[in-house]
């Protein structure tokens, strides 16, 4: 019946979100669509228990639309904003279908394959399945293949034919090719963050997988954007799914106030110092930088002012990265400095393609008769970029997919290289109807390379990228406002900023990077089993410890009163002022006297100092 329905729909234009037919359950309901509950969607009762335990009040728009279609066996392509509940939109019908089948057929085989672009997203999906299947854990077996383990361990995980397999396309094809994974009886295929799966270079793996997937498999694709990559995926799997182009009333970006600050390369550090030291931004914040070195430069800079932060980049072990996100979501950390390395790679690719198109257009306008021949010659002669080997995790991603909760602000310390990356970055805040702020630092062309120690290659075309961002946001009815600040009040902090930057040398960055990696590897590997046996102790493992520069400057952690603006004091903790070493009975401090005898017990202020409570 499902196959006949698909044949009828082939060649037809995919219906719009408003034209999608609701499930039979929803049809019978007389209440407004916004008031539909999870009970009305026809899910398994055990799943409803888990949903109630997690205190989900009612389904989101993408869940209301996608779940009935998925339960009816239709292929679905859902485009919905970040934080709109896309994971539950495919996990719940997937689990419900497996439980329904197991009620009559108890044979063991892999029924569902979930493909994700990054390890962080795989871990997030795995935890979501664990939560939703908490009341039917014996009936649902899930294997996650993204952990850094040997092929033998992965083969062991797959030997019992788990119901659901979560993997990146490369790992899935590797196990399928080695016969460790069997997809002969596969019934469901899910591509989460579908547009990113191709962008991350999994084209060949997806082609290979598509040839091994049996006919009649139900395909679900989830994405935050509808790009050419999504259309390519539809072609690879030869599908024409029902399109759901959805937008919540309070969707991504609606609650975001966007600002841009034009400043020099060193002034980025100055503004960041003032913003966090004077606590101009309240709540949790994610700071995006362009590469791993920038993570450590900014962290070492902050440390000198007593500003605590933790780092997230592809070089750190997966367990550490996952733990950092979990602790951030539990409000243990307020500031995460995240390296968005994938954005730089995608930006380079987009820039090369744009330059190539512009050059071809220019040549074609000169010689229209020989345009095709010239284009063919240029394509053949164009040098191909050689990728440099890297120790970083190629399946790392932080600006998309990862669920950061209750983020108050996103700071683009280094502006992304594409307008789409900007949209995904700021989507980390103002999720699920909340409000948030996005602040981006832009380096004008005339200030580029004026301060070499803090310069980065990605800042060269900041103004060009920001112009694209402004146009894109304007199309969506959103405004990127200038961030106005009084430079006269900021300038007095400049000499302290320069002192701190001079202490952050290349040597100190390299040493800090090595030391942090060594510490995180120790925490990740040697303590893994201990924390599995003692999960409560995990709360004491922190990731925002000091790395320290070569030159320590304790005075920078305190702000002199004369530097503060008039309204700046209220945001800082109360200062107790100067505490003298010891006073005699007449109230005179011994600091101005002849000193004290260090070896004498009675004269040693460290041994005689007593805190006395004031009497009323």
UniProtKB/TrEMBL annotation:
Name of the featured protein: RNA helicase
Query: Where in or outside the cell is it found?
Result: Nucleus
Where in this chain does the record put each Helicase C-terminal domain?
255-488
Main subcellular location? nucleus
* Keyword match Iron-sulfur: no
**GO biological process terms held by the UniProt record:** gene expression; ribosome biogenesis
Q: Which GO terms describe its cellular component?
A: cytosol; nucleus
What InterPro entries does the entry give? DEAD/DEAH_box_helicase_dom (IPR011545), DEAD_box_RNA_helicase (IPR050079), Helicase_ATP-bd (IPR014001), Helicase_C-like (IPR001650), P-loop_NTPase (IPR027417), RNA_helicase_DEAD_Q_motif (IPR014014)
Q: Which UniProt keywords apply?
A: ATP-binding, Helicase, Hydrolase, Nucleotide-binding, Nucleus, Ribosome biogenesis, RNA-binding
Cross-referenced SMART domains, in alphabetical order? DEXDc (SM00487), HELICc (SM00490)
Query: In this protein, which residues make up the domain named Helicase ATP-binding?
Result: 67-244
* Known function: ATP-binding RNA helicase involved in the biogenesis of 60S ribosomal subunits and is required for the normal formation of 25S and 5.8S rRNAs.
Molecular function GO labels: ATP binding; hydrolase activity; RNA binding; RNA helicase activity
Q: Where is this motif: Q motif?
A: 36-64
Q: EC number(s) on record?
A: 3.6.4.13
Membrane-spanning residues: none
Query: Per the record, which residues fall in region Disordered?
Result: 1-32, 349-395, 582-616
Biased composition regions of type Basic and acidic residues, renumbered to the chain: 1-31
Q: Which residues form the DEAD-box RNA helicase Q domain?
A: 36-64
Question: Where do Basic residues bias regions lie?
Answer: 583-595
Similarity comment: family membership: Belongs to the DEAD box helicase family. DDX56/DBP9 subfamily.
Q: Which reaction does it catalyse?
A: ATP + H2O = ADP + phosphate + H(+)
């Amino acid at each position: 019946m499902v196959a006949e329905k698909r044949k009828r729909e082939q060649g037809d234009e995919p219906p719009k979100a408003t034209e999608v037919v609701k499930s039979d359950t929803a049809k019978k309901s007389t209440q407004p669509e916004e008031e539909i509950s999870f009970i009305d969607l026809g899910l398994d009762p055990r799943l409803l228990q888990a949903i109630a335990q997690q205190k989900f009040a009612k389904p989101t728009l993408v869940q209301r639309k996608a779940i009935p279609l998925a339960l009816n066996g239709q292929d679905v392509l859902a485009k919905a904003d970040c934080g709109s509940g896309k994971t539950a939109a495919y996990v719940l019908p997937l689990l419900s279908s497996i439980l329904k089948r197991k009620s009559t057929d108890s044979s063991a085989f892999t029924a569902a394959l979930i493909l994700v672009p990054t390890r962080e997203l795989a871990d997030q999906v795995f935890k979501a399945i664990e939560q939703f299947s908490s009341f039917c854990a014996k009936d649902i077996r899930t294997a996650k293949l993204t952990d850094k383990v040997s092929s033998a361990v992965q083969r062991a995980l797959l030997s019992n034919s788990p119901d659901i397999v979560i993997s990146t396309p490369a790992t899935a094809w590797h196990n399928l090719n080695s016969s460790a994974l069997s997809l002969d009886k596969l019934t469901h295929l899910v591509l989460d963050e579908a547009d990113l799966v191709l962008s991350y270079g999994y084209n060949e793996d997806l082609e290979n997988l598509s040839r091994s997937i049996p006919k009649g498999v139900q395909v679900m694709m989830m994405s935050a954007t509808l790009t050419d990559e999504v259309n390519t995926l539809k072609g690879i799997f030869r599908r024409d799914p029902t399109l759901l182009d959805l937008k919540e009333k309070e969707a991504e970006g609606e609650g975001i106030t966007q600002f841009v600050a034009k400043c020099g390369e060193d002034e980025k550090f100055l503004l960041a110092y003032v913003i966090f030291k004077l606590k101009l931004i309240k709540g949790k914040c994610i700071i995006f930088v362009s590469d791993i070195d920038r993570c450590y430069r900014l962290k070492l800079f902050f440390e000198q002012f007593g500003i605590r932060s933790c780092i997230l980049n592809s070089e750190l072990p997966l367990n550490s990265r996952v733990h950092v996100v979990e602790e951030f979501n539990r409000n243990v950390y307020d500031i995460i400095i995240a390296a968005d390395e994938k954005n730089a790679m995608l930006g380079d690719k987009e820039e090369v393609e744009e330059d190539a198109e512009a050059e071809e257009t220019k040549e074609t306008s000169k010689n229209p008769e020989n345009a095709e021949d010239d284009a063919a010659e240029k394509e053949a002669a164009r040098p191909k970029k050689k990728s440099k080997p890297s120790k970083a995790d190629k399946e790392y991603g932080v600006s998309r997919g990862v669920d950061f909760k209750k983020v108050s602000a996103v700071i683009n310390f280094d502006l992304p290289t594409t307008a789409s990356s900007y949209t995904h970055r700021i989507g980390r805040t103002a999720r699920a109807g909340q409000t948030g702020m996005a602040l981006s630092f832009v380096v004008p062309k005339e200030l580029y390379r004026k301060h070499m120690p803090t310069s980065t290659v990605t800042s060269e075309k900041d103004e060009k990228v920001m112009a694209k961002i402004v146009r894109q946001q304007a199309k969506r009815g959103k405004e990127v406002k200038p961030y106005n600040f009084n430079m006269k009040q900021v300038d007095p902090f400049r000499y302290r900023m320069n002192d701190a930057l001079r202490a952050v040398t290349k040597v100190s960055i390299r040493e800090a990077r090595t030391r942090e990696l060594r510490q995180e590897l120790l925490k990740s590997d040697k303590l893994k089993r201990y924390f599995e046996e003692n999960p409560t102790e995990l709360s004491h493992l922190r990731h925002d410890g000091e790395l320290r520069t070569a030159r320590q400057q304790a005075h920078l952690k305190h702000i002199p009163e004369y530097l503060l603006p008039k309204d700046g004091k209220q945001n800082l903790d109360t200062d107790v002022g100067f505490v003298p070493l010891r006073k005699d009975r007449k109230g005179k401090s011994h600091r101005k006297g002849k000193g004290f005898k260090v070896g004498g017990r009675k004269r040693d202020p460290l041994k005689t100092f007593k805190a006395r409570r004031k009497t009323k």
